[in-house]
User: What shape does this take?
Amino acid sequence: MTARVIMQTPDIHRVLTRIAHEILESNRGADNLVLLGIPTRGVTLARRLAAIFQTIVPGAAIPVGALDVTMYRDDLWQHPTRMSSPTDVPVSIEGSTVILVDDVLYSGRTVRAALDAMTDLGRPQIVRLAVLVDRGHRELPIRADFVGKNLPSAHDERINVRLAELDGEDVVTIDQAVSA
Amino acid sequence: MRHLLSTSELSRDAAIDLLDISEDMAAVADRENKKLPTLRGKTVVNLFFEDSTRTRISFEAAAKRLSADVINFSAKGSSVSKGESLKDTAQTLSAMGADAVVIRHGASGAPAVLAASGWIDAGIINAGDGTHEHPTQALLDAFTMRRRLHGAGSRGKGLDGVSVTIVGDIVHSRVARSNVWLLKTLGAEVRLVAPATLLPVAVHTWPVTVDYDLDHALGESAPDVIMMLRIQQERMNQAFFPNPREYSNVWGLSNARWIGLPATTLVMHPGPMNRGLEISSAAADSPQSTILEQVANGVSVRMATLYTVLTGNREVHA
Amino acid sequence: MSAPRFLIRGAQIGSGSATDILTQGNVIAAIGSGLDSAGAEIIDAHGLIALPGLVDLHTHLREPGYEQSETVLSGTQAAAIGGFTSVFAMANTNPVADTAGVVEQVLALGEAAGYATVRPIGAVTQGLEGMHLAELGAMASSRAQVRVFSDDGKCVSDPLLMRRALEYVKSFNGVIAQHAQEPRLTEDAQMSEGEVSARLGLAGWPAVAEEAIIARDVLLAEHVKSRLHVCHLSTAGSVEVIRWAKARGINVTAEVTPHHLLLSEDRAETYDARFKVNPPLRRREDVLALREALADGTIDIVATDHAPHPSESKECEWGAAAFGMIGLESALSVVQESMVETGLFTWDDVARVLSITPARIGGLASHGQMLAVGAPAEITLVDPHDRQVFTTDRLAGQSHNSPYLGIDLPGRVMWTIHQGYATVAGAKLIATDIIAAQAEEVRRG
Assistant: This one.
């Protein structure tokens, strides 16, 4: 296995700042926004986005929540039993503009599950998707509205996102499987 | 987790994972829409060879909240009571396509026999077998204790250093056995209090301390949790104790004993209670009593159990 | 003078050296080398050990009444494949063997089958109910010549009745074989009481329930100067009581089953009802104490307590399952594993505990004699070097409730010779009709 570094702290901060600007532009401001991170790293990224919003629009307190999708997944029989994470949505999402936030967009199945999970909580007006990395290989008709970095990858490669709050460092790497 | 037969099979991590998933399941109960789509298309059979309405409806609610189909198979009054064997019943359920079987049986080990038999491929969940174990009861008890003691910060925590005193008919209690193993795994200190007739002769091999005298046990140090077990009055006919009055006087949580406890001591009972025998009404209805929470938490813990048994690719399970 | 029958070449007699054995009719005609083989079938027995035909003092043949589990024919076929040439059939049939009629019927069925000598055991009390003495004298003087009496499966728990039985059988040199189990202490009991039963939530069977009865019975035997045999000892404490009684000169003999020499209570962990047995499997310490006691002679014999049950009696929850396990086919292998391989026993010791002493206790003169010129041609040839996983292929009886299936065991019975003819040849059972005809021939003289 060889790991190649794709992004580090400044890169991550730069793309999140760009995404924040794009969100504000498409939403025409910070009104009605709710950031819902998909555990675990999506929640951390959502919190960083919220902090960036505050620097751009002083006083804007955009609600951040965690939306666990485990119980909505369609692949619970393909892997060992998955741990669930707390869902914590501090405000009603009814009629709001929800930005779903995740670290890596791959098959699209997690996002599909997130849409279902969200539906059980309420009916937002608009739902958008923001991801740090889009690595391709979609299996469902799903596309991100805001992408930090497009990273074409092979199936047998692994994208690793590590964030300082959880992992002690900010780094995105791609692990290349060395064929035997 | 392929089956849940005994709490002794649970590692600390596995037990805490189950409790953490239960927390997430409990959160669903607070929403307007209490249902999750997780087990859509799965069939859960409640196979009850003994009457136990409360345990059955708890499992039924849990399965339904996860969108599983539920078949209730009460063995009483069915072909089973007319001599059909466990094997034939199991094969019938297998033919119906049961994905999980929740079994309550009067014989210790019946769930283990079912799990090892090859008669049925379903996940087996022990909902109480004879005088052996009742693992989901112990999980819900631990869950209840953890929530009371750690509140919102429960996630990821065990019950390290928590002192739990279990009082009553230990030798015949599946609740006591499941609790002893699970509480030990979670780091709690368990003390059993009962007359020697109601303790296993080999209780010294268990990871517990034992006291025959409730007043002595409570006098030494007040426990964080006192759990009273149901006493069956018929036991006096088998010379386990002279009569209910004497039992109640010596081993019951009377008003006087309850008042002597600190306000922080939790009072637990797996139900159904004999008020005035093993527990006074004042104790049972007090703010320290968790008895109704135990019932509510039962659904969350059973949802977590069903989820854990019914999902996952089986090859990877050890 | 009948013709030479078998020339067994190169067998090691017990712990002795390899030699040839020539049988003629139903006796051993010669032992030595360079024997005249004219007309005899030659058995190449190099590497095999010759033992006097094995005698089981404790077999449940189930007939009459429970033919779905075993019959006299199928049970004696199991005996033959296990190297036994005689079995004592327990009385808990239906009807109970408590009259001359029933014991004579069992005797006749055994004779007709021809695989082994069947000696019926008579019930001590009518219907095994522990209330009234059965017709012990009638059974003793019947054609079955009953000398061993037992309520096995149940204990003669009434002390007065036990005293009377011990006294009564003195008139025909009988022996009471007691199933030592205090009934009140073992109500609903499922397995040995201790660490494992406490954990599994199975009602415990205390050692004292066995030991208390044995202690009482040896004192009764001493008081009335009678002969007591104690069935299937299972605890270290029982060994101590027997040791004390023998030291005191009490006329008591004791048996242990193969399973109590090899298996311990932890086998119940999986609730696999094949390991449910009465008396129950005990602690590892008990197993070791029983081996020691068998080695030092405190325990006199090994007896199988072969207890066949149909599959539905075992494929169920532990509490609903029947007590008992089969043992005839595996006994010699288990004794080899637990006693010979551990260095506690020589093969002469094996002959003593599985043939010579049980025949003596049961008053069976035609069996249990050292292999010598003039001795009856009751011979078992075992290959001690064989070792394999025990499977149902090794079973010849009707039931498959063996606790050893899937377990690696040494030794294999290659030949069993009974009344001069082979019931097992090359580890294969000889066909029913051939054996019946051979037995008929022997009866006609």
Summary: The beta strands of chain B are 43-48, 69-74, 100-105, 123-129, 163-167, 189-193, 209-211, 225-228, 266-268.
